[in-house]
Automatic annotation (TrEMBL):
Enzyme Commission numbers on file: 2.4.2.-
GO BP annotation list: cell wall organization
Keywords on record: Cell wall biogenesis/degradation, Glycosyltransferase, Golgi apparatus, Signal-anchor, Transferase, Transmembrane
Protein name (database record): Glycosyltransferase
Bilayer disposition of the protein: Single-pass type II membrane protein
Any one of the GO CC terms: Golgi membrane
Highest rank taxon of the organism: Eukaryota
UniProt family annotation: Belongs to the glycosyltransferase 77 family.
Keyword Oxidoreductase: no
């Protein structure tokens, strides 16, 4: 599709890399066809009388999506390998690639850890204004237990210009994600069209990060970071995700996942999984990414590609739905089970104060003698969480 714009490959090493990628793409295409076949054969729970109509439309949409993914994959391949090429070829590639993709590659390269892992969050104007969610998010890293270093590896993805401008004032690693024809600047109501578009745009962006070869921790900005999470990740997992409610077994697919916190390793399995996840939105319209994940997590396609999924325990990765009760173990706390930006801010400020008190006890050597406890949720939590239809132009947020 873009081959006429590319110079001839001039080194055996580059040719070998190209053949390797082409081999992986062939396998991806085979597995994507299996995914479509799985869906077409009725693996998903559709009503019988809509079966043929929905699946016929879905397969056409999948095919269209895969064409777009193929074009994106080729562009990403060139950006990924361009750093290994002579300067003249690098400049030629860069000039023919989408500007946004080149910029993203630069930000990732600058921010990543030695093993090519980055921490990613997304931000819009409503959450970026001073004294809002973003300030609390950054503050948690600064007052956490040995978490400040992680800020060096945090990429903030701004969804609008004002969020990007504010990010640059307080953080060095910002990237503006452009989405034509959509305004993500205001607080999106839970489950409205803008909210769904924002969630699916996020999945597509994270797919691009994986295609560039980077592992990532994705974190919502309403998650407070209190400890380094890496010691609590599973060594054998490809895709790890936090839970609203944890059922006691990290391999139990009946856990209730929350897409606000994920740790994903970049490999062939996760790249295929994110493609499958994204195109599955067409089969389940008006569902957000988390609901679709709950529907596809049992799909045979995931077993076929060998994807290892693990669910993170709430005693380490908690939230307002199910708290991390032990201050000596907690890594992150999420303002989930909460509707409304003001409610989130109110409870998150109290949460940070609770943590400061705990850290003060730790410095004074009294943390083992005086048990710490959370004073949240107050305005949030399961008892107050009532998702409902919102007016078209409002400012109340989602989970």
């Amino acid at each position: 599709m873009y081959s006429s714009d590319f110079p001839k490959w001039s080194t055996a090493k580059t040719q070998k890399s190209m053949e390797s990628v082409e081999g992986e793409e062939d396998q991806c295409n085979q597995n994507e066809q299996l995914a479509k076949d799985s869906i077409t054969n009725g693996q998903h729970p559709l009503q019988h009388h809509h079966h043929y109509h929905h699946h016929h439309q879905f397969v056409r949409k999948v095919s269209k999506s895969l064409v777009l993914f193929s074009a994106l994959a080729l562009a990403i391949f060139v950006v990924y390998h361009s750093s290994k090429l002579p300067a003249s070829l690098h400049n030629s590639f860069s000039s023919s690639m989408p500007k946004e993709l080149v910029e993203l590659s630069k930000v990732m390269e600058k921010t990543a850890m030695k093993d090519k892992t980055v921490v990613i969050t997304t931000l819009n104007e409503a959450w970026a204004v001073p004294n809002s969610i973003f300030d609390l998010f950054l503050e948690s890293f600064k007052i956490g237990n040995q978490t400040k270093w992680l800020l060096n590896h945090l990429v903030v993805v701004a969804l609008d210009q004002k969020a990007y401008d504010q990010c640059l004032k307080v953080h060095p690693n910002c990237y503006k994600l452009k989405t034509e024809g959509i305004d993500f600047s205001s607080e999106a109501y839970f489950m409205t069209k803008d909210y769904l578009k924002m969630m699916w745009r996020r999945i597509l962006f994270l797919q691009t990060v994986l295609d560039l070869g980077y592992n990532f921790i994705f974190t919502d900005a309403d998650i407070m970071w209190f400890r380094d999470p890496f010691p609590h990740f599973h060594a054998d997992a490809d895709f790890q995700i936090a839970c609203d409610y944890f059922r006691g077994n990290s391999s139990n697919l009946n856990n209730s996942p929350n897409g606000g916190f994920t740790y994903v390793r970049s490999n062939q399995k996760t790249r295929q999984f994110y493609r499958f996840w994204y195109v599955s939105r067409n089969l389940y319209p008006n569902n957000h990414d988390q609901d679709v994940l709950n529907r596809i997590k049992h799909d045979p396609f995931l077993k076929h590609i060998g994807l290892q999924i693990r669910f993170l325990e709430t005693k380490f990765f908690g939230g307002f739905c199910q708290r991390s009760e032990d201050f000596n173990l907690v890594c992150t706390m999420h303002a989930n089970c909460c509707v409304g930006l003001d409610n989130k801010i109110y409870d998150l400020k109290i949460m940070l104060d609770d943590w400061r008190k705990y850290m003060s006890k730790s410095r004074n050597g009294t943390s083992l003698l005086e048990k710490s406890s959370w004073n949240v949720p107050q305005h949030c939590g399961p008892a107050s969480f009532r998702p409902r239809r919102m007016p078209k132009n409002g400012t109340q947020g989602g989970t």
